[in-house]
Amino acid sequence: MTGEDPSQALPVIFGKSSCSEFTREAFTPVVYHNKSPEFYEEFKLHLPACVTENHHLLFTFYHVSCQPRPGTALETPVGFTWIPLLQHGRLRTGPFCLPVSVDQPPPSYSVLTPDVALPGMRWVDSHKGVFSVELTAVSSVHPQDPHLDKFFTLVHVLEEGAFPFRLKDAVLSEGNVEQELRASLAALRLASPEPLVAFSHHVLDKLVRLVVRPPIISGQIVNLGRGAFEAMAHVVSLVHRSLEAAQDARGHCPQLAAYIHYAFRLPGTEPSLPDGAPPVTVQAATLARGSGRPISLYLARSKSISSSNPDLAVAPGSVDDEVSRILASKGIDRSHSWVNSAYAPGGSKAVLRRAPPYCGADPRQLLHEELALQWVVSSSAVREAILQHAWFFFQLMVKSMALHLLLGQRLDTPRKLRFPGRFLDDITALVGSVGLEVITRVHKDVELAERLNASLAFFLSDLLSLVDRGFVFSLVRAHYKQVATRLQSSPNPAALLTLRMEFTRILCSHEHYVTLNLPCCPLSPPASPSPSVSSTTSQSSTFSSQAPDPKVTSMFELSGPFRQQHFLAGLLLTELALALEPEAEGAFLLHKKAISAVHSLLCGHDTDPRYAEATVKACVAELYLPLLSIARDTLPRLHDFAEGPGQRSRLASMLDSDTEGEGDIAGTINPSVAMAIAGGPLAPGSRASISQGPPTASRAGCALSAESSRTLLACVLWVLKNAEPALLQRWATDLTLPQLGRLLDLLYLCLAAFEYKGKKAFERINSLTFKKSLDMKARLEEAILGTIGARQEMVRRSRERSPFGNPENVRWRKSVTHWKQTSDRVDKTKDEMEHEALVEGNLATEASLVVLDTLEIIVQTVMLSEARESVLGAVLKVVLYSLGSAQSALFLQHGLATQRALVSKFPELLFEEDTELCADLCLRLLRHCGSRISTIRTHASASLYLLMRQNFEIGHNFARVKMQVTMSLSSLVGTTQNFSEEHLRRSLKTILTYAEEDVGLRDSTFAEQVQDLMFNLHMILTDTVKMKEHQEDPEMLIDLMYRIARGYQGSPDLRLTWLQNMAGKHAELGNHAEAAQCMVHAAALVAEYLALLEDHRHLPVGCVSFQNISSNVLEESAISDDILSPDEEGFCSGKHFTELGLVGLLEQAAGYFTMGGLYEAVNEVYKNLIPILEAHRDYKKLAAVHGKLQEAFTKIMHQSSGWERVFGTYFRVGFYGARFGDLDEQEFVYKEPSITKLAEISHRLEEFYTERFGDDVVEIIKDSNPVDKSKLDAQKAYIQITYVEPYFDTYELKDRVTYFDRNYGLRTFLFCTPFTPDGRAHGELPEQHKRKTLLSTDHAFPYIKTRIRVCHREETVLTPVEVAIEDMQKKTRELAFATEQDPPDAKMLQMVLQGSVGPTVNQGPLEVAQVFLAEIPEDPKLFRHHNKLRLCFKDFCKKCEDALRKNKALIGPDQKEYHRELERNYCRLREALQPLLTQRLPQLLAPTPPGLRNSLNRASFRKADL
Q1: CA-based, 20 to 30 A from 575: which of 99, 188, 532, 1301?
Q2: In 3D, which of 264, 339, 249 has the Cα closest to residue 300?
Q3: Do the Cβ atoms of 977 and 932 come closer than 8 Å?
Q4: How far apart are CA 1413 and CA 1409, in angstroms?
Q5: Element (H, E) at 628
Q6: Which residue numbers in the chain have pLDDT < 50?
Q7: CB 626 within 8 A of CB 716
Q8: pLDDT of res. 674
Q9: Alpha helices in 1413-1452 (DSSP H)
Q10: How far apart are CA 1463 and CA 1381, in angstroms?
């Protein structure tokens, strides 16, 4: 109720669902016959915006009559009580226990509480509290906290100036209000968190007002600055703590960020902006920043259009437009604030302020000045609270400064006059103290140090837009000096360097970073580190002046003049150089931070419309010229994208041979780097070493990760692309040979790093978190190498867990790195992957073109140099690498043009020096001649033709190119799967046309020689077509490759090429033994020709030296000297025909043998390799070789039984039928993988040939009998497959002792076929014959192919008695093996015994004896067989007896009965055999007739006449 009259009841009670929305009164349910009822009802009320002291709640108690009587009311009021809503200006909430009046309340009761005993009123229960009720308020207008209420009330009193004033029970006068206000400020820290957070904007506004406009009490100005500042610190701390869960990545509270961004303004009226622009225009920039939460909630100051904030695409044009942008982004209008406070300006009528009595200008203070002063002089407790949230006070200070300049119309004032000296002194002291806190706390509280460091850097970056920039640079220098001083004694310098790197990154993110570096001024130290440059002329004047010709070297090094002139760029590049130092501790994180800082800046410059013109970009690139020297010297630690041993330093070492003594320290970091940024003008004598070690360029250090290396190389390419070519040329002229070599290595690495991998690579990366695995590998290496300690590792992990250490979230790091291979989100869509592949392809082309341009500059530089040949050779290697990688058509046109120019100007590179370059070039050109794109084919054909022509012009013979082209084509068709034979034929035709129409060489033999070469190439291509036809038939494919290699018997280079092709194919199929044999043959070939060329004792004497590895290698014997001279031009000129090449081939062979488990052969290979290594004193390789030998011998010992290694299974395969073509009636022995079943190979061959010939054409012959071709269907293809076993003569078994010996060097194989005279395979014992077939192959297994033709076949037939002898010998051997087995196997022994002595139905030992020993044969020729069988049975009985004895010792009690049964069976068998074995043959004593056959000699077996 607003008054005491019932009509003044307000409709503010929320109604129920069946009633109106708001009602004036609400009832509880009736409680029946209860003297102390409990009302559980809750009522919700809508409070008016302005609550006065007359507003109250009135409670009326009714008695309800259950049995109504006539004349009596149904409801009778029996009691009244009330609650005034406002007391002492504060909303009353909480539990109440109210007395209840029997009488109606008197007039004016509402201003009093029921606790006051009013005269003449009757009360229930003697005025005791009998009615309990609780009020809960949900309000954004009333704080409901006594400390906040008191504070707001006191401030209100001071604003109104109405004294005396009643505060609760006390009366405040001008004398004691100051004391109360100070107490209230101190008590703000005791306020409840919820209301404090809700009213934080308003509390901060009031505190700011107390600081800026100190109140005047009794005519005296009361300075409350310190108290207000301390209160502000505690409020900010409390709000942070309350909203800890809502903090952003850097620990900033969104509530406080929103206050600075939207709500904060300097107290007082706001005049219009300069030039009469209304304030609305300032706010418009804020609204135009896009929907959603503004960026400044993450404390981005919306200050950059390029490197920091690409959202703002408008070029700056106003006088200090960065100030306007700070204001626009942070806002001066409060309309966005969600705090709808009654105390706010424009609040409710009841709390509108009248003009304060102290609006004169004298008492006003400037907020930023007061903040700086109070911060500097604050006590330790308050300072700790401020340091925890320094970002807030820095941001507040910056916005206050910007508003001060705007409202005071000071933007046109020179920067040096904008702020007084005392304020700048306070800023200096403040920056110094905060910087010291960062340095001292880095070892105690890393998170706080990181936050402080970032806040300080952002503050200084903001100051660059507001105050004199020379002053800011002096602050930066002072901070660096502090850090440099502490670095020398710091226990963990890596943490300090990381913080300083962060500091530099943030500082360099300023939108006028380029202008601040004075890009086009001469390299002479200015009077000030950076004179003030107004933003109006910054972009128009910076690039207009032409730089005079400075000393070029100092522009490309981190020299003193460079760092003084280009201050910020010098800082950044010095940090990068320090991070890339070999001894840098905790290098992984430093690498990433330093390189990404430079990279993000360059990305910003590249997309910045201000620097779009090429001349302007060249000036910007000059700021980063030292990056080239830094990257060049970091080369040994970059990730090796080329994935080849020695690729990184190959070119540099090539150029380093002549200049061993020359110092190469010019490219390293100047040893006075650390002091250069810390001191004032550089003193010539100041030398402070960055690291403890000597500053040599060759030191090894922590390798960079792949991602960091790629990013650094991208930065290098950007500088090379945009720098002035003339400047680069002058720089290259001054480089020493080793430096130039490292620069070429750097370009080589750039090509490898940005090589296009194709869409499939992106799909793989999409399924694997590639970047994370690489990063983890790098960290693991750091831990293993000891470059990072346990403590640093713990700190790093905690930093990664905390949101503050993640560089991806820093406000100035924008995601413009489109080329990154991986992102945190793995599940990319197809369109995203398409786009990423497109970007990657464009990047690869761009990188390659930049490298090509740089190579052109280097070539122009060294054309007149003395060391021209060595440099140009290195240049050509880089060009060749670029042509060999996956490139776009655009680049290949330019690349091939460059290659043609190089070869035409300097033909001696290819034709007088090492042939490897010529071989590589021919291979690249041929590959591009087979391209599907006609433009590439045209350029490649022209290049290849000109290559032949130039070779011919030098010596009227292009034998070298002819040989290399033929070898390259052989290599190409042997290794490339998607090779286009049709397109290559077109290119060859084009070359032929060139030769025919070449007028200059029409009278020479050139055209004929070209024609011969083209014919040879066509023949190779024809073989290639056949190979493609048999691509799915590995045996036929290897046979074809073998045939081609045999065809090149007179051309060692080409034979070697094809042997390597075969090895690659075998390795791909998993045939490691065959791949090893290919490499042994290749090594034997090389050894043969090395023996012809030079005679050294340590080299193998040709093929003979390799006989122990394989008897097959003798086929590599060289053709006689009168047919081929090995030193003729073009022959044996490849890189493999050297001692180094021979070593490489032997190492590959040993590797393949190891993979195939042929460890004994590894020893034989190394027997040939070790003498060469000993002759070269290569002890490192010797140590490795002996280590591998030890491994091999250890494995042989552990696998001595042979069962652990199964070398292969062999099958005889015969082909019958005209459909097989060359294979008709051919027999082969196939070597299949270990434990291959007959059914497997049968199914594989049947399926393959069925697919080739069609259904119902291929038939498998099931038996192994001789095939009668006349009975076969001519339209069908027949395959006969038989399992065969290696066969050895008795004398061979003496040498073949081990399991390996019996499975290596196999030429003879055996298979047996049982038959009977009537044609059946099996029959009764007297008619069971057996045919033994021996097959001999052309070469011994393993060979360079997996199937070898059968060259000889021999058959023998065993008679039934001989078959019986063999069977009994086999049973006896089985018994002996089971008996002598160690450890004994009882189950196996019992199985063999059961089969030997158990009662068998058919063809058991007893039946064999009864058939063949019952009667003495009539034919004297069979006497010896009869006797031999009798002896076999005697031996058999003896072995049975031994086995039974052994079994008795092995069995347990449960098997005793089984054993007795076996003994009974054995006794029966022995008794039955006894009469058969005791027969005498007196004829055996007679001399042997002349024609009797010796059955022990295989050669005397009679031939089969069946």
Answers
A1: 532
A2: 249
A3: no
A4: 5
A5: helix 626-633
A6: 269-319, 330-362, 523-549, 645-648, 657-699, 769-771, 795, 798-825, 1120-1130, 1401-1402, 1484, 1492-1493, 1495-1496, 1498-1506
A7: no
A8: 37
A9: 1423-1450
A10: 21
Do 757 and 690 form a contact (C-beta atoms < 8 A)?
A: no
**Which residue, among 918, 1022, 909, has the nearest Cα to 962 in the 3D structure?**
918
Cβ neighbours of residue 34 under 8 Å, at least 6 residues apart? none
Cis peptide, bond prior to residue 267, ω within 30 of zero: no
CB count in 10 Å sphere of residue 971: 22
Long-range Cβ contact pairs of 495-500 (< 8 A, separation 24 or more): 495/442, 495/443, 495/446, 495/449, 495/586, 495/792, 495/795, 496/439, 496/442, 497/575, 497/578, 497/579, 497/584, 497/590, 498/586, 498/589, 498/590, 498/593, 499/438, 499/442, 499/449, 499/450, 499/453, 500/575
Q: What is the pLDDT of residues 1040-1094, one digit of tens each?
A: 888 777 767 767 877 888 888 889 989 988 889 999 999 999 999 888 888 877 7
Q: How many other C-beta atoms lie within 10 A of the C-beta of residue 1216?
A: 22
- Cβ-in-10-Å burial (0-12, 13-18, 19+) of 5 comes to exposed
pLDDT of residue 159: 73
Rounded to an integer, what distance in angstroms lies between the CA atom of residue 436 and that of residue 571?
Answer: 19
Q: How many CB atoms neighbour CB 333 within 10 A?
A: 16
Can you tell me which residue has the tokens 């006497």?
Answer: 1423
The number of angstroms, rounded, from the C-alpha of 1153 to the middle of its chain's C-alpha atoms is 34
pLDDT at 957: 64
Indicate the burial class of 213 (C-beta count within 10 angstroms; 0-12, 13-18, 19 or more): buried
Which amino acid belongs to residue 891?
A: F
CA 626/CA 546 separation, integer angstroms? 20
CA distance linking residue 1416 with residue 920, whole number of Å: 81
Query: What is the SS3 assignment for 58?
Result: strand
Number of other residues whose CB lies within 10 A of the CB of residue 838:
11
Q: In 10 A of CB 331, how many CB atoms?
A: 25
Q: Would you state the structure tokens that stand for residue 1441, as one six-digit string?
A: 């007896």
Residue 1029 tokens, joined: 């036809």
Asked whether the beta carbons of 244 and 380 are under 8 A apart, the reply is: no
* Count of residues making up the chain: 1506
The pLDDT score that the predictor gives to residue 530 is: 40
The DSSP bridge partners found for residue 221 are 216
CB-CB contact of 1073 with 1158 (8 Å): yes
Largest CA distance in the chain: 163
Pairing of strands 1258-1261, 1277-1286: parallel
- Exposed e or buried b per residue across 345-377, where buried means at least 16 C-beta atoms within 10 angstroms of its C-beta: eebbeebeeeeeebeeeeeebbbbbbbbbbbbe
Which residue is it, tokens 């800023």? 427
CA nearest to 1223, candidates 1039, 1059, 1029: 1039
| Identity of residue 698 | S
Q: State the angle between helix axes of 1405-1412 and 1360-1380 in degrees (0 to 180), rounded to the nearest 10.
A: 150
pTM of the model: 0.61
- Looking at 1451-1495, list the stretches that DSSP marks H as alpha helix, in order from N- to C-terminal side: 1456-1477
